[in-house]
Amino acid sequence: MNPESFSFLYERERKKVEKILVEAFKDRKPDSLYKPVKYILSTGGKRLRPLLVIFSTKAVGGNFSVVYNASVAVELLHNFTLVHDDIMDNADKRRGMLTLHKKYDDSTAILAGDGLLSVAYEYLLKDCNGKTKEVISAFTKGLIEVCEGQSLDKDFETTDNVTIDKYKLMIMKKTAAMFEMCCTVGALLGGGSPKEIKAVSLFGKNIGIAFQIQDDLLDISGDEKKFGKKVGGDLIEGKKTFLFIKALSKAKGNDKKKLIKVIKNNGIKPQKVNMYKHLYEKLGVIENAKAEIKFYTNRALRSLKTLKKEDDKEIFSWLANSLIKRIK
Amino acid sequence: MNPESFSFLYERERKKVEKILVEAFKDRKPDSLYKPVKYILSTGGKRLRPLLVIFSTKAVGGNFSVVYNASVAVELLHNFTLVHDDIMDNADKRRGMLTLHKKYDDSTAILAGDGLLSVAYEYLLKDCNGKTKEVISAFTKGLIEVCEGQSLDKDFETTDNVTIDKYKLMIMKKTAAMFEMCCTVGALLGGGSPKEIKAVSLFGKNIGIAFQIQDDLLDISGDEKKFGKKVGGDLIEGKKTFLFIKALSKAKGNDKKKLIKVIKNNGIKPQKVNMYKHLYEKLGVIENAKAEIKFYTNRALRSLKTLKKEDDKEIFSWLANSLIKRIK
Known about the structure:
The structure is a homodimer. Helices cover 76% and strands 1% of the residues of chain A.
């Protein structure tokens, strides 16, 4: 298959997921709970996680149609995390639109998040068939890790000496565990062998790590309009990203002082973003991030060796490459 | 069995639940997530919902030991709702101690609630055995209803014309659905027949309605020290409880004006609680509430006709009576 065919496939399946997402909340009441839920789902997004479920099912020889509800479930779980995280981070914008708690209020957003998670389990159950225990276990494990990861991320706000190791543990839990779970659920429901499930799950985990470092990178190198968030937002908020931690570990003298200032002041002024971007370039941490992304992407692809069909590997390769090249 | 034996049984089983609740979070990290979770669990509570699971298992001929993890799961779910509800209600105290978001902050409490819910599913899965789909479905249905009920309750804050019917729908979802779920899960795991499961679930639903009206009643007639919350708190906050809605529907002239004032001012001053208590007495709504509690308690007990063993009915009768006589 050529890249265009993969894009076509992604888009076709994404639209199906989109349709079920809309149907899932069409007739639910009360509006005070579900209108905000519909709002956050209408803000779009790549729907990457559901597609990971779908492709993982395909990769082990299963049929797309057996995992649409499960793929909707992971998207709902993902949106639950976004809604609650945005309250905690006091974020104004998400996907270029107002965050839920800014459009409504904190209480509405807390409850909408809870509702999203609840309905996620309802949808997951629809596709579980004979594998309810394994699938719900994998999903719940992913959920617990996401909560732990978010807690670690919040800890970083008040920790001065965050190391790359601590950072990796955090993103492993906050981001990669969910990618891994999507692939596990897809492979389980697709009827994969234990070996295949393991291979596909490892793909998810490693691509998840690459994805998060890429996200950190996009924050400083992305195009504001396409990215949907303010460029340099992580620096403005003083977030300990891969780039920042790496820069701090490499910098000396005056450069180091500048970086310590970011920690001390809990962030920087927007007009200073460019100065720090140049510092990142000078210290080579943008290149470091790119190398790291490549490393985890390759590791992800290597884990797929056990898959039999070339087509299945190809779809994941295309996905991995699309993620590296993504602009938002 | 005599009432003392039932109290002994309740206490013995409650302690076992308590022990598992502590063990469940002993070795989890990070502390930033699980210390707040342990705090809220350490504030105690009646552990009524886990005991409902345990007694329901017993009532259909099952063994206590097969549902300890499931009973811990419902208590975790219950605490998840308390933690999130307390943020939304901006409540200061719970069980006589600081609420989680007051002891820490909103973000910590949001995440602790999420963590409680996640681990609830983990614990539920431990006991599911061959009934994972039914049990997880019942639990998830209960969870969704709790979210919807909380949303309806929040709607009441800005609705002037709340009727007793709307109130009952709200408590059916916010409180009774969870009681029903506890009984369903217990009866399912205890190996009950469909008829038995139905009977025990109906007991839970109706006792849940009685429990919530009793809660509204305790708010005005309870002893502050034993109740753990400020007496008249619902009036102070302008909550539309059974008593308030009933009073508003019965009052005329000056009495009605006084009640409308509560709505207009979003509550009353603490020193006016006694005046409103006398008004409730004058209008007979305290007696109305007591009659309603009796009605639903009797309905709950009647649903148990299909249970074979007298002992099993007795334990539920004792529980129902304890709930009516409770002071907190």
